[in-house]
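for the writeup, i need someone to sanity check this before i put it in the appendix. the sequnce is what the collaborator sent (i think, or maybe the updated version? ugh). structure was predicted straight from it, no edits. if anything looks off just tell me and ill rerun, i have time this weekend
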Amino acid sequence: MIDFTQVPKTIPHVLLHNARTFPPTKAAIREKDYGIWQSYSWQDYLEQVKYFALGLGSLGFRRGDKMAVVGDNRPQLYWAVAACQCLGGVPVPLYQDAIEKELHYILEHSESRFAIAEDQEQSDKLMALKVDIPRLEYILYEDPRGMTSYSYPWLMAFARVQELGRQFERDHPTYFIDEINKGRPDDLSIIAYTSGTTGNPKGVMLTYRAIIDASVGFIEWDQLTHNEEIMAYLPMAWIGDHIFSYGQAICAGFTINCPESTSTVLHDQKEIGPTHIFAPPRIWENILTQVMIKMEDAAWIKQKMFRFFLDVANRVEKMTMNKQRVPAGMKFLYGLGKYLVYDPLLDNLGMRRLRLAYTAGEAIGPEIFEFFRSLGVNLKQLYGMTESSAYISIQKTGDIDPETVGPPCIGVKIRITGKGEVAYWSPGNFTGYYKNPDATQDTLEDGWVHSGDAGYLTERGHLKIVDRAKDVSKLKDGTLFAPKYIENKLKFCPYIKEAVAHGSDRDYVSAFIDIDYGAVGNWAERRHIGYTSYTDLAQKPEVYDLIYNEILRVNQSLSRDEKLKGAQIRRFLLLHKELDPDDGEITRTRKVRRGFVAEKYKSLIEALYSRAESVDMEAQFTYEDGRMVSMKATLRIRDAETF
């Protein structure tokens, strides 16, 4: 790892150091394009950054300017982020699936003068907004396919900007290095916008010092080296990708790999064999669901062997986590299972070389967590926020508690306020919200960040998160009601994609359930249950029975919790459509917008607290192209047994 006592702490300086230190044979970044992996060394990385930066300089880009970045993970977009920083500019990553209204707010609020898009789809969205945002001067794009018919002086290809950079260098030979050397550790490195759970997204201002300290903290915690290989496929607007695919990669000097598309991630992963993976719980859930679906197609002897050795692995992992001695017979069976089942399965998933895996963003189901750990995947939960550069707490190898997110990271301090809220001081802490002093004052106090999450430290010094502090309330009888905690338990089921629990100041808890269309559809087809659409499938009696059993599982779990046993789910309904960011129901990071959902589906909530057995409803939803359509449906309501 780089000795940061010898290298100035800005990302551009570290990039320069990498190009001078690593040999040309060392890959910094790869991209799969047209089925072929293209590899770039750290020298290539720097050269691409340099000429794009000089091209920006020739177009009038100046220190302090903002540049929006939108698209899937591509080397050119990472290079654009670095080029912007080399000139003292500030990158503003955007979610690639954001609709025009969401993009408009961030582009205008961030005062972005430049924007770079991956392809025609993203360019079209930006061009449609340029008329209303005069400050947006230039739109640049990486993929020229479909762009040949466009002819505007302010619309330019990535390669064309680099050509301008080479011309600019002739008259300004030291411009690039001079601009880098003006950078300081406490300069603004990035503005990362939050998902906007309760209102408009907030622009989190993070310095180079924060990004590098957080990246180095993660590297030291798990002894990462320049030999790591990771997949870059998460949204670039998410702080997790910025830290793990950008900050960490540059600070440690390891290789990131950009898949051909989001649909080919697992296939491309098999070819690379990453050593390090970061994925939210939903990804791990999807992988497990696919494994189980494929096993249903296997011969009965393979199914029997799989279940037997999976049970062995699970028992061994539980003994290991509880620091119990594993009997010799179990060790032998585990070794046999490793040869027959575990290693072949990991190889099929592209995880044979994996030595470290992280999950964050939401709680992960204990069964899912234990499944991957029992196969030999060193899966860990971490807890972080955009405001901390994702750096707050993380589980330790050899000290895993599936119910917690581990002890504080190196250099992090955690305290629990009198209201039960988690507050922290982290080396990765932000300096404030861009153009929002009131929100900054509410969140940041004497260097401590109020997370908004309710939680506590266990006897082992591990942090346990219960729910969002503002969402924790009580039922009418005084029972504690933590909706997110209940929703996460529901989402541990592979057939449930989203859930919204209700109960604040009510007589009992009820829930909206969003089925996982793919998983439930596959389940229905195997049982010869016909259906025509999501709505039709969700209202099938057999599907209600399927989800009812999962509700019982959650209620049984809640019944064992002294504080939450009175918050078991009494009534539920299956929604007619998936909760969608385009409809404002959830954020781009899949967090429920409770206030919006409560208002939009007020009639459904009231029906859950009446004696009604069904409810008629009419709703609007938005297609990706912005078209609004209406639909009517009759939703069944079902009571659930409590314990």
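The chain has three domains: 11-267, 281-468, 472-639. The first strand starts at residue 27 and ends at 33.
thx in advance!!
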